[in-house]
Design a protein that fits this description.
The complex is a heterodimer. By secondary structure, chain A is mainly α. Chain A is built from eleven helices and no strands. Chain B is mainly α. The relative contact order of chain B is 0.09. The longest helix of chain B is centred in the middle third of the chain and has 32 residues. The chains are: A mainly alpha, B mainly alpha.
Chain lengths: ~290, ~625
């Protein structure tokens, strides 16, 4: 890794959350159209963040804020590691570190909503982490290694079921229904995030954008091409495709109870990835004839 | 005089001597003796590690010439071995356990029969060997074990029969060092059974009905493990004509029924390491005073089992069905115990399940049996031992100061016992989160598990569950309303010193991870294993060294630094939590995934599957012979 690439990856890491914010702006527009509304400006998430930063400070305790900072730090790290071309497994572990700090921050305040949200967050963790690990394994199976550097292969053709499983994980990470059980603002007043306000809420949202950016980055792995321009366009398209599916699902489903949620993510996600891995393996071993 | 062999022998003899001295003494004198000997053992362990690394040899052997009077050793161990069997039979009688008596008698018959067939008093060519693997265990046992002994000085204050307690604690350390250094299998067997004796008395210590029952269970299971070990050893001496570990593991090829040697030693190791289906004795052992748990779980007992299994790695490798079974057993132990830990609210049980799970991971790595996976096994062994010792001691402090072991009653501990809480946070974080050492082990083991993809499923589930139960516990400890801080706790230096020392050790070892990988762990592989550098993640761990692990450290440090310094909170900014208008703050209990009902179901399931697999490891050599 040379200094130029280090600089480029750092620049991408700085820009990424704003790109995510822009995508979320599009999301709000599309959602609004689906619900026969006009919707906010495209940059609304950024306006929201700026407004949050200017609000009066209100704090329950400092431990929560320190842990939230660790969460943000780990989210940024996970994304940067991806862009810098680290091993997908390190990213996997750093991502779970981020989730652990996020949950710990929620536990640090003795608020019933926050505590409930934290517990639900943990149940989500057991639902999506094994799926993510197996999805990485599927990528390894096709690519031959765990590095996150792009390949020429159009992985989505090899791993369509894994792609579908990752969309489920994406729904969880984006706090979209039917998997928004931890945040669940209408039920437990946004759970783990209930006790943040002003700039601290902004901070946590900012960390969340990095997590989402990472999820999109992983999804962008599913399209590659030897021609860099084709690859770029393909990657953008596949990210939009994934996000569009997420929006569609979000608007056509209702929130599950958390037990249902765990049962709805883990078995389906695992089944999809395992079946896909088996098919790829069978093709590689020439059990299934392939041109 | 050559220092390394001397220090190695000291690491066996010093604790034994200390134990014998501590037994008859009065309280004050005993405190002095235990302190002095613990300090000396720590010194010996550290000096041995430093000298060995400085020397740069792969293996240092102690043969006839290094032992002083070799006859004294040979006859001493033979006589003591027979005496030990007699003591074990007597213990069986005392517990009224036919199962234990039969096991001890079978051992006695096997060993006596074998010795008289072969001729008593045969001098081994190489009596003790110190290589990198043995050194890891000796260092952990000497340093962590002694720190636990120092901790126990305060913890046992006001309890009965302290003489017996400290005698067995120190003896335990000596026996453990003896077992991992022994090259002669009969000597290994002797030290192995001494640890069985020590663990029996330490679990028995409180002499309540529960303690007696648990001690009896531990005795029964570990004695039958000893029988498996004895069968393996006797077979090796009888048919393979060698009793020396280095020659045995270098055997060119083992086929057919001869595979019974690694299979028997593997099953023996499983009982010592409390792997499913033999996990029940370790859970029962929770009734013992907490320093005993710390000792059993981190520096002695359970490590001995995985040590034996790790030594058998090159032999297990010779028959693929055997390694696959071993890998499955380990992975199931890991996933099942991680799930079981989710259902428990007694923190000692949670930690016990976590121990079994991490050792399961080691067993799985031996089963995968690639260079990278064996390195992963050693990483997990080392870092788990250090972190788990510290966690158990912290739990001991909470138990001593607040009188609770229940996670649900530990709310707000960060106000009552801030020092201990931060130690636990560090310990838990080091068990689950990068960049601490255990992560390197997990990373390597996941990478290695791509050779047997079915393991990945179990690994993924297990590691997610691990994060959940640690986070749940730590979350409970740190949850607080931010009332003005109370007066800080006054902890005895006997508590603070060992905890602080181990905490420092964890951070230091984690920072050194790339060094440990490249300069140490990669070079400890048995003969016949390629360099682990063919696995991408080992390269990322070592030769590009600080790149990734360094990045994680920097981000963690920056996050923590910014959080600690930049987030000033004035009193006017403080608010109460949102409770939807209720005047009181309702308490929310943790989630236990169905509690005991789930636990019983899961245990039954895991035990029956693993018992089947464990039996098949013993049948596989027969099958290999027939086919």
């Amino acid at each position: 890794m040379d200094w130029l690439w280090l600089a480029i990856s750092t620049v991408i890491t700085v820009i990424a959350p704003f790109a995510v914010a822009y995508l979320m702006g599009i999301d709000r527009r599309i959602t609004a159209r689906m619900q026969n509304r006009v919707g906010p400006p495209l940059l609304q998430p950024i306006y929201d963040l700026l407004k949050l930063l200017s609000k009066t400070k209100m704090v329950v305790n400092r431990g929560q804020l320190i842990l939230a900072t660790m969460y943000v730090s780990m989210s940024i790290l996970a994304f940067w590691l991806f862009i810098a071309g680290a091993d997908l497994l390190i990213i996997f572990f750093v991502l779970s570190a981020a989730a652990a700090f996020y949950t710990l921050a929620a536990y640090a305040v003795l608020s019933p909503y926050s505590q409930l949200g934290a517990t639900r967050e943990l149940i989500q963790l057991i639902a999506y982490e094994p799926v993510l690990l197996l999805a990485f394994f599927c990528i390894w199976l096709v690519n031959g290694d765990f590095t996150s550097v792009a390949t020429d292969k159009a992985l989505v053709l090899w791993l369509p079921l894994t792609f579908a499983a990752l969309i489920i994980v994406l729904l969880v990470k984006l706090q979209k229904s039917p998997y928004d059980v931890a945040e669940a603002h209408t039920e437990i007043v946004s759970g783990p995030e209930v006790e943040y306000s002003g700039k601290f809420l902004g901070l946590v949202k900012f960390g969340r954008w990095y997590e989402i950016a990472l999820m999109f980055a992983i999804i962008s792995l599913f399209f590659g091409h030897s021609n860099i321009y084709v690859a770029f366009v393909g990657k953008v398209l596949i990210v939009f495709l994934a996000y569009f599916i997420v929006i569609l699902v979000d608007n056509s489903t209702a929130r599950l109870r958390f037990g249902q949620m765990a049962r709805g993510v883990l078995p389906y996600g695992l089944a999809l990835t395992v079946i896909n891995a088996l098919i790829v393996w069978a093709i590689q071993q020439e059990v299934i004839p392939w041109p | 005089m050559d220092l390394i062999p001397t220090l190695a022998l000291m690491s066996i003899l010093l604790p034994t001597l200390g134990g014998l001295l501590a037994f008859p003494m009065g309280d004050r004198a005993r405190k002095g003796v235990v302190l002095a000997f613990s300090a000396a053992i720590i010194f010996v362990g550290t000096a041995l590690t430093v000298l060995f690394l400085w020397d740069g040899k792969d293996v240092v052997t102690i043969g006839e010439d290094g032992l002083g009077s070799v006859d004294a050793w040979v006859w001493g161990i033979t006589v003591l071995d027979i005496a030990l069997m007699a003591v074990l039979i007597w213990l069986g009688v005392r517990c009224r356990s036919i199962v234990a008596i039969v096991a001890a008698v079978v051992q006695l018959v096997l060993i006596l029969g074998f010795e008289s067939w072969k001729g008593f008093g045969e001098v081994p060519e190489v009596a003790f060997t110190i290589d990198r693997l043995a050194l890891v265990l000796v260092a952990v046992c000497s340093i962590i074990g002694s720190l636990i002994a120092i901790f126990a000085l305060q913890y046992m204050e006001g309890r009965q029969k302290k003489g017996r307690f400290f005698a067995f604690v120190l003896l335990f350390l000596g026996a453990m060092n003896g077992a991992v250094l022994s090259n002669d299998l009969l000597w290994l067997f002797f030290f192995w059974e001494v640890t069985t004796l020590c663990s029996f008395y330490l679990i028995f210590h409180d002499e309540t009905d529960e303690a007696k029952a648990s001690a009896r269970l531990a005795l029964e299971i570990t004695l039958w493990g000893g029988v498996a070990l004895a069968v393996g050893i006797v077979y090796a001496g009888w048919k393979l004509d060698t009793l020396e570990l280095d020659q045995l593991t270098a055997s060119a090829d083992l086929a057919g029924i001869a595979l019974i040697v690694p299979a028997m030693l593997f099953v023996g190791g499983m009982t010592k390491s409390a792997q499913v289906p033999f996990q029940s004795w370790l859970l029962g052992a929770m009734v013992a005073p907490t320093p005993v748990s710390a000792l059993l779980h981190s520096s002695t007992m359970v490590n001995l089992g995985v040590y034996a299994i790790l030594r058998m790695a090159p032999l297990l490798k010779m028959y693929t069905p055997l390694t696959v079974t071993v890998a499955l057993l380990g992975a199931i132990s890991f996933a099942a115990t991680a799930a079981l830990a989710l259902t428990q609210s007694n923190v000692k049980r949670v930690l016990a399940y976590s121990t079994i799970g991490n050792l399961g991971l080691i067993v799985m790595c031996v089963g995968i049996n690639t260079p990278a996976s064996l390195v992963a096994a050693v990483f997990i062994l080392l870092f788990h031992a250090v972190s788990k010792g510290m966690l158990f001691l912290s739990v001991g402090v909470i138990d001593h100061e607040v009188k609770t072991k229940d996670i649900e009653e530990m709310g707000g501990m960060s106000e009552r016992l801030p020092f201990v809480t931060w130690i636990i946070v560090l310990g838990s974080v080091s068990m689950m989160i990068p960049p601490f050492g255990l992560f390197a082990g997990k990373w390597l083991s996941v990478e290695a598990a791509t050779n047997m993809p079915m393991l990945l499923l179990l690994l993924g589930l297990g590691s997610a569950a691990t994060i959940i139960y640690y986070t749940k516990w730590v979350g409970r400890l740190i949850s607080r309303t931010d009332a003005p801080p109370k007066a800080p706790e006054h902890l005895s230096p006997y508590y603070k010193l060992p905890l602080g020392a181990i905490a420092g050790g964890i951070v230091l070892l984690s920072v050194l991870t790339p060094f440990i990988a490249d300069d140490y762990a990669f070079q400890m592989l048995p003969e016949g294993y390629a360099s682990p550098h063919d696995t991408p993640s080992t390269d990322l761990l070592a030769s590009n060294s600080y790149m990734w692990i360094g990045a994680i450290f920097i981000f963690m440090a920056v996050g923590l630094f910014l959080g600690m310094t930049q987030l000033r909170v004035a009193d006017k900014d403080r608010r109460k939590v949102y409770t939807c208008g209720e005047p009181v703050e309702p308490q929310v209990a943790g989630h236990y995934f169905g509690g005991e009902a789930t636990a019983t179901l899961l245990t039954d399931l895991a035990v029956s599957v693993c018992a089947g697999l464990a039996i098949s490891t013993l049948l596989l050599p027969v099958i290999a012979e027939v086919v």
